[in-house]
Amino acid sequence: MLVLTCPYCGVAACETELAPGGEAHLKRFGPGSSDEDFEAYLFLRPNVKGVHFERWRHAMGCGKWFLAARDTATLEVFGTYRAQTSAPPPEIVAAIQAKRPDWSLT
Amino acid sequence: MRRYSAFAIAREAARHHLGWERAWRSPTPKPRYDAVIVGAGGHGLATAYYLGKNHGIRNVAVIEKGWLGGGNTGRNTTIIRSNYLQDPSAAIYEKARSLYETLSQDLNYNVMFSPRGVMMLAQTEHEIRGYQRTAHANALQGVATEFISPRRVKELCPIINIDGPRYPVLGALWQPRGGTARHDAVAWGYARACSDMGMDIIQQTEVTGVRREGGRVVGVDTTKGHIACDKLGIVVAGHSGVMAERAGFRLPIESVALQALVSEPIKPVMDVVVMANTVHGYMSQSDKGEMVIGGGADGFNNYTQRGSFHHVEETVRALIETFPIISRLKMLRWWGGIVDMTGDRSPIISKTPVEGVFVNCGWGTGGFKAIPGSGWAMAELMAKGHSPLADAFSLSRFREGRFIDESVAAGVAH
Ligand SMILES: Cc1cc2nc3c(=O)[nH]c(=O)nc-3n(C[C@H](O)[C@H](O)[C@H](O)COP(=O)(O)OP(=O)(O)OC[C@H]3O[C@@H](n4cnc5c(N)ncnc54)[C@H](O)[C@@H]3O)c2cc1C
Ligand SMILES: [Zn+2]
C-alpha cells in the first residue's frame, strides 16, 4: 500500500485516504496558444518509467493538494512537498539524486 | 507446419507423441525486414498475421522483450463483447468478435472461443437508460444485443442475488454471442500461424531505440543489435509511452496497474459472463472451474505489474453481495498488468509524427476482445496507409477534439 506524508498536516496517509491527481508541474496553455501546445498540455504525457512528479489530494484528511516524487518502476517514494511551486524544491531533487545518481531534472 | 486435427492426435497417440513439432521457430534476427512489430502480445501478433494473410507482407519480425503473450494478453480476464455505444467502437469490436467466431479454424489452433453470453447488469436508473440506449444503438449497428428483465437475468444466472440490499438488479444488457476465449491460446495460435508464414518471432529481445533519417524510420536498435526496416509498428500496451519516447514523440497515454484474481476451482455454477459496473465487479467461470474475477484500476502511474490491495478488497466485497455463494471461496492467484489509458479511454491505431512508424495502443483495460479486429485494421493501415476501421482512432483526434465518447476502457477489467 502506498503511503505518502501530507506536507501540510504531517499525517502519513495511506492511499485510501488520498486522491490521485495526475502529473505535476504541467505548464498551462490557454486561449491564444498554438494547437500543438494546447494538445500537449491537455493530453500528451511523458508517462515516465522512473522518477515521476505527481499531484495528490489529502481527500480524507485536510483536503489540500500536495505534490509527490515517486518512482513508477519501483513504487519508491522520494518525498512530498507543498503544491505552491512550479518545480520540485532542491531538497526533493537532492533526495532523488541520492538514490538515482544518474537522474537529473530536465 | 503439420496441421492439428483429430487424426493427428490419433497418429501421435499411436507413436508415443514423438512427432509433434514446435509450434513456432526461435530464429536469429535477419539484418533487414520489410516490417518490424515491437511487442508480441495479441495485438502485435495479430497485426503481423494479417499483414501476411491479407496483404502478402511476410518479411516481418515481431520483437518481444519477454516471452510472447506474457504482457496483458496473458493477464486479462478474457471477456469478449462488442456492445459499445459509438459507431467506430461497435465497428472494430464487432469485427473482432466476429473474427473470434472462426479464429480456431482460421489459425488451426483451438483458442477456445466460448460465446456463452455476456450480461451487463443495470443496478441504477441511469444504467437502465444507458443500456437501453446502447441496445438501440446496437440494433442500428447490426450488433445483436437486447435489454432484459431481472427475471430473465435470474434465469440465465441463477446464482445472482437480484434483490441486493443496496443495488438490486433492475435489468441487464445481454449480448448472447459475447463470451470468453483462452487468452494464451490466442497469442500462441497467431504466433504459430505467423511463424508458419516465414515470419520471425524474436523473444527475449528488447527494442531500445528507433533509428530515423530525415523524419522517417530506417530501423531499430535491440539488445541483439541493429535491425533495419521500412515500417515499424509499436504495439506495446503499457510501455507505449516508453517506446514513443525512444521514437521521439509523446502519446496521450498514462500507464496504471489493473488487477484480477481467480478462485479455487469449483463445480460449474455459472455459464455466462456477468459484469456489474456500478459495484465494480466482473465474474465468469473458467473451463477449469475457477471463478475469474476482474478488479479495478489504480489511479496513479505504475509500471510494476502490482496493484493496490484495497481495489481487490472493493471488488470482492461487491461480488459477494451480488453472488452470495462465493463468500467462502478461497482465492488461488492474484496478479496485475500495466494498462495503457488514453485521454478519452478509447484506443489508438494511427500513423505517428515519424514517417513509417505506426502505433497501436490505448486498449487499456479492454483490449483482449479487440485483438483480431485491431490486428486486421493495423495491418491494413501499415500496408496501405489507410484503414476504414482505424480512421476514427487516429492520434489527430486529440488535437482536433474528435473524442470517442465511450469509456471503452472504463478503468476496470473487462
Ligand atoms: C487484469 C487485467 C484484466 C483484463 N481483462 C480484460 C477483459 O476481460 N477483456 C478484454 O477485452 N481486455 C481485458 N484486459 C485488457 C487486455 O489484456 C489488453 O488490452 C490486451 O491484452 C493488450 O494486448 P497487447 O498485445 O496490446 O499488449 P500486451 O499483451 O501487453 O503485449 C505487449 C508486449 O510488448 C512487449 N514490449 C514492451 N516494450 C517492449 C520493447 N521495448 N521491446 C520489445 N517488446 C516490448 C511486452 O513485453 C509485451 O509482451 C485486461 C487487462 C488486465 C491487466
Ligand atoms: Zn493533510
Automatic annotation (TrEMBL), chain A:
GO terms for molecular function: sarcosine oxidase activity. One of its GO terms (biological process) is tetrahydrofolate metabolic process. It comes from the Bacteria. This is Sarcosine oxidase subunit delta.
From TrEMBL, chain B:
GO terms for cellular component: cytoplasm. One of its GO terms (biological process) is tetrahydrofolate metabolic process. It is an enzyme of class 1 (oxidoreductase). It catalyses: sarcosine + (6S)-5,6,7,8-tetrahydrofolate + O2 = (6R)-5,10-methylene-5,6,7,8-tetrahydrofolate + glycine + H2O2; sarcosine + O2 + H2O = formaldehyde + glycine + H2O2. The keyword ATP-binding does not apply. Pfam families: DAO (PF01266). Keywords: Cytoplasm, FAD, Flavoprotein, FMN, Nucleotide-binding, Oxidoreductase. Its EC number is 1.5.3.24. Residues 36-79 form the Rhodanese domain. InterPro entries: FAD-dep_OxRdtase (IPR006076), FAD/NAD-bd_sf (IPR036188), Rhodanese-like_dom (IPR001763), SoxB (IPR006278). The keyword Cell inner membrane does not apply. GO terms for molecular function: nucleotide binding; sarcosine oxidase activity. It is found in: Cytoplasm. Its cofactor is FMN; FAD. Belongs to the SoxB family. This is Sarcosine oxidase subunit beta. It comes from Roseicyclus persicicus.
